[in-house]
Design brief:
alpha/beta; flat; five-stranded parallel beta sheet
């Protein structure tokens, strides 16, 4: 039996865990000292118990939101998402514990300050930890020794990926294929497939990537059996990668593996519940505070600018292709082309106040009523006219995918430069790509980011808003 090298990913997790605890406890004592004159007496007397509860909640939280900074591919957005989820869970557990152990409500002042500081510094710490690990791997440490079996198109693409992305922490030490001519283009070619086993044992290989076609199932089975017996992690790069190059999701129906085209966070009930609750709260706040003033002023200006109603409604395509009436402040004079012709840059139908409303997104405010009704969300793909849905569903393959979630008042495509007039199919394709990306990467944090960028665009303007 081969003696395997011990990786240090386990050590990395422990170092991050210790860093988490040091940071959290340092913030606890610093905030306690800073607020010493304002702390509730009961909280001050039980500070030791509060300290122990804080650390106990950490271990519960890290169980449900484990440390994953040592993964080979991990982006800052995912780090922030996981760190924020961790802090939120810790907050819920800690506050529940404070009430359970009869801490006075005034201790919430301390909790609010502590978690504000903890949220900011914890996210920064996790990002710094990841960047440090990335630099460590780029220096040639903490790597996995890898061999690739099969030097076809998939094998060569995998070789390029693993050898050009040093921070992944992979080191390709051999490529094997039954075609010896591969040696002329691959300096790491080490021999035929029958020689894989001996090479792996001599060089303490950690991972074996098989890119052989399914027609060579006997060779694949032998490689799999060898890897299992010698504690080498075995991975298969499927043939269909040649025509389906995207992140896929592997699931199971009993023992049968099933591959999904995309992961959709909003397929899970708890994400839909969180999004719906945030939509309702945000819409109520807008409709009870800002909207009455906007409505009063714009209603007068709209009536002065041209005859007709204050509000405009139009059938749009919503969730799963269901039609609904989308509300807006009327920004154009009454015309018969509203359902056929989209707004253009110098559209003569626009009123003077309408030009301003469209540029600042003020015409969209009535859609918060659509959100309360459940037809729309605050953030999501923008709902299109029925004519556009009919047209582009035949021209763009993924067009209807955008209707797997509720349409939004604002969206990822809109804040990344793809809003306004649709001048050609290529422009719409780029918008659809961003809509699908949003569906696959939804998070409450991403929604907040889109809302903030939308507000900024309202004040600074958008050249495509007309």
């Amino acid at each position: 039996m081969v003696q395997k090298r011990k990786g240090n990913n386990f050590l990395i997790k422990w170092l991050v865990l210790i860093g988490d605890l040091l940071l959290m406890n340092a913030i606890f004592f610093l905030v306690s000292y800073w607020m010493r004159d304002h702390l509730d007496p009961v909280f001050s007397e039980k500070k030791d118990e509060a300290f122990l509860l804080l650390n106990a909640c950490y271990f519960f939280s890290v169980y449900f939101v484990p440390i994953k900074l040592s993964e080979r591919t991990l982006y800052i957005e995912e780090i922030v998402k996981r760190a924020s989820s961790f802090v939120l869970l810790h907050l819920v557990l800690y506050v529940s514990g404070l009430f359970l152990f009869s801490f006075h409500i005034q201790s919430i002042d301390f909790v609010a300050v502590f978690y504000l500081v903890f949220f900011i510094l914890f996210n920064l710490w996790r990002i710094v930890a990841r960047k440090s690990l990335k630099a460590y791997r780029s220096a040639g440490r903490n790597f996995q020794r890898v061999v690739i079996v099969g030097a076809g198109k998939n094998g060569l693409e995998l070789y390029d990926e693993l050898t050009h992305q040093e921070f992944f922490g992979y080191k390709v030490i051999g490529v094997f294929d039954d075609n010896p001519e591969i040696a002329a283009i691959l300096p790491l070619y080490k021999g035929t497939i029958s020689e894989v086993g001996e090479f792996c044992l001599k060089n303490e290989v950690d991972e074996l990537y098989c890119t052989l076609p399914s027609s060579q199932d006997d060779k694949i089975s032998r490689l799999l059996s060898f890897s299992e017996k010698n504690m080498i992690r075995f991975y298969i790069v499927p043939e269909f990668y040649r025509y389906l190059k995207k992140k896929l999701i592997l699931g199971n129906i009993e023992h049968l593996p099933v591959i999904a085209l995309r992961d959709e966070p909003l397929q899970y009930w708890y994400n839909r519940l969180i999004k719906r609750m945030s939509d309702i709260v945000f819409s109520f706040v807008i409709l009870l505070t800002v909207f009455p003033f906007i409505w009063l002023i714009l209603a007068i200006l709209i009536k002065i600018s041209s005859p007709g109603p204050v509000f405009f409604k139009q059938l749009r395509t919503g969730l799963y292709g269901k039609e609904f009436y989308c509300y807006k402040f009327r920004s154009m004079s009454m015309n018969g082309d509203a359902d056929e012709k989209q707004a253009e840059k110098n559209d003569s139908r626009k009123t003077r106040i309408g030009e301003f409303m469209r540029r600042t997104n003020l015409d969209e405010f009535p859609q918060f009523f659509n959100v309360l009704k459940g037809d729309m969300s605050v953030v999501g793909p923008r709902p299109h006219m029925l004519k556009h849905t009919e047209m582009y569903s035949h021209l763009i393959d993924k067009y209807m995918v955008r209707h797997l979630v509720k349409p939004g008042i604002t969206g990822w495509a809109q804040v990344t430069g793809y809003r306004g007039e649709i001048k050609d199919v290529i422009y719409m394709e780029e918008r659809i790509k961003r809509d699908v990306w949003y569906i696959e990467n939804y998070s409450l944090l991403l929604d907040a980011k889109i809302v903030v960028r939308t507000i900024i665009n309202m004040f600074y303007g958008d050249e495509n808003a007309y």
